[in-house]
């Protein structure tokens, strides 16, 4: 992908201002996948807004599925402005009253950082470990980019014995493998087999890259498929490409059977068998397909709050770090990579990569610092963490928030987090003096997301509209 260029703060502010004007005039069509970690109440609210495909999938005649946030450098800024240190009292006066909103439940924490200096400008319980819900994806994706780099791609491979009569479809952990890419892989495979005069094969499939339980602790549901190294379209069975959807209980087996049918359509008879197996002795790769670059996968995971992709990225991090590709191994690897970035992880716990597990614990200070590190010119490979953030009123899980006349529309970029009783928001804003701020607001024991989310949005809007110096 093209090399990202860092813009000046003046250019950043100009871009943000344009986004705000576009929002005010309604020039951009809104589309809103719901946060993949949300629960029944939110799904019920979404129901009346759409007419086909269930509560989560808008009618394509009325809206479009959002693409990942643009990876253009328009969301970046140099950290060299703003020599005057803003008065912490300014933020305290703005945020303290908003944090007392009963909609934010019994426990609420906050952190705001000036990314130019790394200074904590505002903190309220900032070091208290809380359940982050899907905002933990900020940690997951940062760790993956740190150890793998933005250009890393995940491979799915076909291995064959020298005589070509035994094939193995080897999963590399790419949940974004599509039917089209699987067909292309079948084309490449058949081309090799024809050169060898092979028209019938034994087909196996290998899922051994991952270890430990396949089923997330919350079980198989519309928010996540079994976490396996081989799957097609994230195990979705309704043709959707994001958001909650029915999932297969056997994504690897389904993929292998689909591949066998594709081989048969091309004149090669194949039996995929009923259980995974490693490649036969002497097998070598004969065909391969690759995912999009990690930079694009990170943007997709954050924009759409993609749980399946987040779990895959956590396991890719584990593999690169020499840990088992399991929930536990991935958790250790993510924490270790963040520690190498000198992030405050002493009280953090990563039970999964997606945030669906309530045993995840992070602080507001950690999330805000993750975002500040992604804005640091010394860490350009972390930029997709910023470019993947949903834009208020425009994209991803913020498409249906900050709408109407909300002054944060187009200015707030943030990752959402939603579980029953947990609502979180972490992202960036450009204050009116041109200062890029990173923030994290975590709320627990909330009664309703429909009151907690607007309360969080008001906090972020206060940052975007506040003059700090």
Automatic annotation (TrEMBL):
Residue spans with biased composition (Basic and acidic residues)?
37-46
Look at the named UniProt entry and state the broad enzyme category this protein falls under.
hydrolase
**What are this entry's molecular-function GO terms?**
serine-type D-Ala-D-Ala carboxypeptidase activity
Q: Which Gene Ontology BP annotations are present?
A: peptidoglycan metabolic process; proteolysis
Q: Enumerate the InterPro entries for this protein.
A: Beta-lactam/transpept-like (IPR012338), Peptidase_S13 (IPR000667)
What are the entry keywords? Answer: Carboxypeptidase, Hydrolase, Protease
EC no.?
A: 3.4.16.4
Per its UniProt record, what Pfam families does this chain match? Answer: Peptidase_S13
Q: From the UniProt entry, list the residue stretches annotated as the region Disordered.
A: 35-70, 234-254
**Family named by the database record:** Belongs to the peptidase S13 family.
Q: Which NCBIfam families match?
A: PBP4 (TIGR00666)
What name is this protein filed under? D-alanyl-D-alanine carboxypeptidase/D-alanyl-D-alanine-endopeptidase
Species name: Streptomyces beijiangensis
């Amino acid at each position: 992908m093209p090399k990202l260029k860092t813009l000046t703060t003046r250019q950043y502010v100009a871009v943000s201002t344009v986004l705000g004007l576009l929002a005010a005039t309604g020039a951009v069509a809104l589309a809103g996948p719901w946060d993949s970690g949300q629960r029944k109440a939110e799904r019920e609210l979404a129901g009346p807004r759409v007419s086909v495909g269930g509560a989560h999938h808008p009618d394509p005649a009325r809206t479009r599925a959002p693409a990942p946030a643009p990876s253009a450098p328009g969301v970046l800024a140099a950290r060299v402005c703003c020599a005057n240190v803003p008065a912490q009292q300014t933020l305290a006066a703005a945020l303290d009253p908003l944090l007392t909103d009963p909609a934010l439940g019994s426990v609420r924490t906050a952190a705001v950082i000036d990314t130019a200096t790394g200074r904590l400008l505002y903190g309220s319980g900032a070091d208290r470990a809380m359940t982050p819900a899907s905002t933990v994806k900020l940690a997951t994706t940062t760790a993956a980019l740190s150890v793998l780099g933005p250009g890393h791609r995940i491979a799915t491979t076909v291995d064959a014995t020298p005589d070509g009569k035994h094939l193995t479809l080897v999963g590399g952990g790419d949940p974004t493998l599509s039917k089209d890419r699987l067909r292309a892989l079948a084309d490449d495979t058949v081309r090799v087999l024809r050169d060898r005069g092979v028209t019938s094969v034994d087909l196996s499939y290998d899922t051994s890259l991952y270890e430990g339980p396949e089923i997330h602790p919350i079980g198989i549901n519309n928010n996540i498929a079994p976490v396996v190294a081989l799957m097609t379209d994230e195990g979705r069975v309704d043709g959707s490409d994001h958001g909650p959807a029915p999932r297969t209980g056997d994504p690897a087996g389904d993929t292998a059977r689909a591949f066998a049918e594709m081989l048969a359509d091309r004149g090669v008879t194949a039996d995929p068998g009923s259980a995974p197996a490693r490649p036969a002795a002497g097998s070598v790769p004969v065909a391969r397909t690759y995912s999009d670059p990690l930079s694009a996968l990170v943007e997709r995971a954050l924009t759409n709050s993609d749980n399946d992709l987040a779990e895959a990225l956590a396991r890719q991090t584990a593999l690169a770090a020499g840990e088992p590709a399991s929930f536990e191994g991935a958790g250790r690897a993510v924490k270790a990579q963040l520690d190498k970035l000198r992030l405050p992880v002493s009280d953090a716990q990563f039970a999964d990569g997606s945030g669906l597990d309530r045993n995840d614990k992070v602080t507001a200070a950690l999330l805000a610092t993750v975002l500040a590190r992604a804005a640091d010119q010394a860490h350009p490979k972390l930029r997709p963490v910023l470019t993947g953030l949903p834009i208020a009123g425009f994209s991803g899980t913020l498409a249906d928030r900050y709408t109407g006349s909300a002054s944060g529309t187009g200015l707030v970029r943030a990752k959402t987090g939603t579980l029953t009783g947990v609502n979180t928001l972490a992202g960036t804003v450009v204050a009116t003096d041109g200062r890029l701020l990173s923030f994290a607001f975590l709320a627990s024991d909330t009664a309703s997301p429909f009151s907690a989310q607007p309360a969080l949005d008001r906090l972020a809007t206060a940052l975007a509209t506040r003059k700090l110096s």
